[in-house]
Amino acid sequence: MTSEEGALSHSPRTRAALIDRLAERLGPGGVLRDPADTAPFCSDWRGLYHGRTDAVLRPNGTEQLAEAVRLCAGAGDAARIVPMGGNTSMVGGAAVGEDGSELVLSLSRMNRIRAIDPVDMTMTVEAGVTLKAAQDAAEAAGCLLPLSISSEGSATIGGVLATNAGGNNTVRYGNARELVLGVEAVFADGSVFDGLRRLRKDNTGYALRQILVGSEGTLGIITAAVLQLHPRPNQIEVALCGVDSPEAALDLFQRFRRADPSAIQAFEYMSGTGMALVNALIPDATLPLAEPAPHYVLVELATVRQDGTLRDLLEAVLGEALETGAVLDAVIAESRAQRLNLWKLREEHAEAQKRAGGNVKNDVSVPVSRVPDLIRRASEACERLIPGVRIAPFGHLGDGNIHFNLVQPEGADRDAFLARDHEIMDAVCAVVRALDGSFSAEHGVGKLKPYMMPDWRGGAELAAMRRVKHALDPAGLLNPGKILPETEDRPGAAS
User: How far apart are CA 5 and CA 247, in angstroms?
Assistant: First the structure.
């Protein structure tokens, strides 16, 4: 720390003076102060949190970001930082406080794709690059970045890694963590960790990149990453199937796994209630089956082979399942446009539920074998709690991650329903816990769920998390109130 920065932390300079200094360091466009400019950064996507901030910091590179963090570190509580990517969090992971004491840090100007190597099958990208832009760049180089989520047009690489995003292709490629070879990051003291290594094997101490991935911006700010690419598929086949139960959906998954597990790229479950909302509330969303079904599966197969056999595999498995009654009806996409239309029926579930009224989201996971038990038992628990509630689970059956969402009963009061959100979440999570699951599968903990951490991750596990937080961010500068309860996230809590 320079003498100038040290003086800032001990002088009576105001918060406004700190922001003036940050604006000087970050240059034109580097700091937003006008309330009209900062307002979009003060509410989360779901509308659960509404805060305020005096400034949004927008560095144009890692060195500028490090300078800004050093200045904020010198100012103590007057300059706590909330890192923000595309602001698509479902759990308030980038929510800013109501008292205006926090500064928002946006990496939107750090949006360069630094390198793509089709031989190494890697790409080096800055944190502000959207996931869709990274996918497009990989495709232009003849490669595949397989991470795919509904918000990929807005979500940025930094946020995707900070939350260890999962998505549709986890069943085949894993979560974001499995695709990260190296990261560059700025720690809470402003020091820069240069870990942009393209190595598959690097057994040299603690894997700091893995500590940062999934830390939700509480341990450091990811500024760039080396991502692992894959060959682009030469064949893709997609089918939508109607089934009579979650057990039948799981049976179909097992049939495809027995036939060729390497071909499964996505395996998605949808409830009949959720599909009905999509068809009723989303323009141009049309169910292509003869009759509605109680439950649905969307399966996507892909391979790099060029022998044309993937369609045969799909038809063989579905044909046998139709003959035995495991599948009630099915349609196979005949073109890219039809594939996209089938995927639209899955991707628009969250938006349809939002349009249907108040909804409570439960991003949970259980062992794959217990997904049918989760859907049945949690449905029964929620119906007992709120008769008439619309139960609309959907998600990634292939990896055990179900978004067990509830929509207010028709005609019910939205605010009264949402006021019971924690009661509903706890009812679902009681079932999840009995099935050896997790209360957060891919959305993280954010600001919404830290209260669950002591009960679910208490003892040695939570104590270790607190010690890591205290070691890397002893002043609690980064993303306060996320993951760990704030009162235990401050200096001295981990001692």
Answer: 62
Checking DSSP bridges between strand 235-243 and strand 329-332, what pairing results, if any? antiparallel
CA distance 416 to 411: 12
Nearest to 295 by CA among 318, 329, 256, 261: 329
Tokens for 162, please give them: 């900070």
| Paired sense of beta strands 31-32 and 56-57, if any | antiparallel
Q: What residues pair up with 264 in beta bridges, in sequence order?
A: 301
C-alpha–C-alpha distance, residues 174 and 189, integer Å? 32
Amino acid at 350: A
Distance CA 388, CA 495 (A): 48
| Tokens of residue 30, six digits | 């580097």
Residue 150's Cβ-count burial label (10 Å; 0-12, 13-18, 19+) is middle
Q: How far apart are CA 160 and CA 152, in angstroms?
A: 9
Q: How far apart are alpha carbons 364 and 400 in whole angstroms?
A: 8
Average pLDDT estimate for 251-258: 98
Task: Give the residue from 151, 152, 58, 40 showing the smallest Cα distance to 96.
Answer: 40
Residues 6+ away with beta carbon under 8 Å from 425: 360, 362, 439
Given a contact cutoff of 8 angstroms between Cβ atoms, the answer to whether 230 and 146 are in contact is yes
Instruction: Name the DSSP class of 449.
Output: S
pTM recorded for the entire structure: 0.89
Q: What is the mean pLDDT of residues 81-96?
A: 89
Q: How far is CA 444 from CA 223, 449, 453, in A?
A: 20, 8, 11
Two structure tokens written together for 402: 């179900």
Query: Which of 486, 495, 491, 494 shows the shortest CA–CA distance to 76?
Result: 491
Q: Which residue would you say has higher pLDDT here, 89 or 281?
A: 281
Ranking 9-23, 88-102, 126-140, 271-285 by mean pLDDT, the lowest is 9-23
Helix (H) or strand (E) holding 425: helix 421-434
Sign of torsion over alpha carbons 406, 409, 414, 420: negative
Sign of CA dihedral 38, 41, 47, 48: negative
Say if residue 153's pLDDT is above 60.
yes
**Which one-letter DSSP state was computed for residue 97?**
P
Reference 268, options 400, 447, 84, 82; nearest CA is 400
pLDDT in the model for residue 491: 34
CB-based contact 490:474 (threshold 8 Å): no
Q: What is the 3-state secondary structure (H, E, C) of 31-83?
A: EECCHHHHHHHCECCCCCCECCCCCEECCCCHHHHHHHHHHHHHHHHHHEEEE
> From CA 245, how far away is CA 403, in angstroms rounded?
17
CA nearest to 55, candidates 24, 101, 95: 101
